[in-house]
Amino acid sequence: MKEITIYSPATSANLGPGYDIFGLALEEPYDLVNVEIIESSCKCCEQIKISVSGEKAEEIPLDPTQNTAGVVALKMMEDFNIKECVHIKIQKGIKPGSGLGSSSASCSGVAVAMNKLFNLELDNLKLIKYASLGEAVAAGAPHADNVAPGIMGNFTLTTSYEPLEVLNILLDMDVVVALPNIQVSTKEARKILPQEIPLQKLVNNVGKATGMIHSIYNKDFENLGKYMMGDQVVEPCRATLIEGYDEAKEKVKEFAYGITISGSGPAIIAIPKNKECSSEIAKIFKEIWNCPVYETKVGKGAYEVKD
Ligand SMILES: Nc1ncnc2c1ncn2[C@@H]1O[C@H](COP(=O)(O)OP(=O)(O)O)[C@@H](O)[C@H]1O
Ligand SMILES: N[C@@H](CCOP(=O)(O)O)C(=O)O
């Protein structure tokens, strides 16, 4: 095999009280990551050449040490003594700085592509570990709550970072996601968070997060949404960065089991009560932000696209 194309989904991290732990894979939007082995006598001066097209492609660095996909590929090439040159072509369907794991979709896609192209036979946990290295460039920390669902699909819990441990739960659920035209950098949105929290808030957040897991196993979306909205630490800080969020929260009450910030924002994710409610929520989001809205559902992790 000389080249491979991977579908790499958007992901929604945190989901309220699950900061750096919870993550969901979404069916839409997504990136396509193509990796091709090219002649070593190619004109590029480095072992990795990167091209980017699609959403805000002009803002994404092509230097492999600055592009999240490049960082992951470089480390995999170093660790597995890969001498060939590769051309990574990224077609962005997920706008960067979105809160929908745009930077991480490239990390997950390239990790899965390199694994298959060079027959590395790495398991999902090792792929997540490599993919999270790319997040260190974009977010300033190798958080795994986007790359874990990006690779495994469904709902993931990064239960430990040292050593890395990830759990995966099957979840069939519709969601509505708005992408307001507001710029929020994950790196900056991490800096505004408190470094210490009162014990009472810890008790609250652990209670809400564990309640969410119970609700998922019981397919109790009403309680899932209620607990998701119970974060007292991260969401209240970041809510101030997203104009219109309070209005949206108020207006979707009737139609959604819950609503929260997706990742570090500005994307907003809501759990609709049913299909009709999904359309109502989408309408409200469009009225407030006049922005792209995805009526989508929880989906698969990165996979090979065959023609
Ligand atoms: N392959 C890539 N895809 C998207 N963003 C990238 C990529 N490589 C580097 N970046 C940088 O990462 C930042 C976006 O990441 P981040 O703020 O975490 O947004 P998101 O929530 O969409 O992942 C931007 O500064 C962007 O230039
Ligand atoms: N846990 C991270 C998730 C960032 O997600 P992104 O989609 O905004 O990159 C955080 O909250 O910082």
Automatic annotation (TrEMBL):
Span of domain GHMP kinase C-terminal: 212-287
Pathway field: Amino-acid biosynthesis; L-threonine biosynthesis; L-threonine from L-aspartate: step 4/5
Where does the GHMP kinase N-terminal domain start and stop, copy by copy? Answer: 72-153
Q: Which UniProt keywords apply?
A: Amino-acid biosynthesis, ATP-binding, Cytoplasm, Kinase, Nucleotide-binding, Threonine biosynthesis, Transferase
Query: Care to name a GO molecular-function term for this sequence?
Result: homoserine kinase activity
A cellular component annotation (GO) from this entry: cytoplasm
Name residues in a coiled coil.
none
Sorted alphabetically, the Gene Ontology BP terms of this entry are: threonine biosynthetic process
Report the catalytic activity.
L-homoserine + ATP = O-phospho-L-homoserine + ADP + H(+)
Q: Where along the chain is ATP bound?
A: 95-105
Q: Carries keyword Transferase? A: yes
Query: Which Pfam family, giving just one, matches this sequence?
Result: GHMP_kinases_N
Main location class: cytoplasm
Task: Say which domain of life the source belongs to.
Answer: Archaea
Q: State the protein's purpose.
A: Catalyzes the ATP-dependent phosphorylation of L-homoserine to L-homoserine phosphate.
Protein name, per record: Homoserine kinase
Origin organism is Methanococcus voltae (strain ATCC BAA-1334 / A3)
Q: What is the lineage of its organism?
A: Archaea, Methanobacteriati, Methanobacteriota, Methanomada group, Methanococci
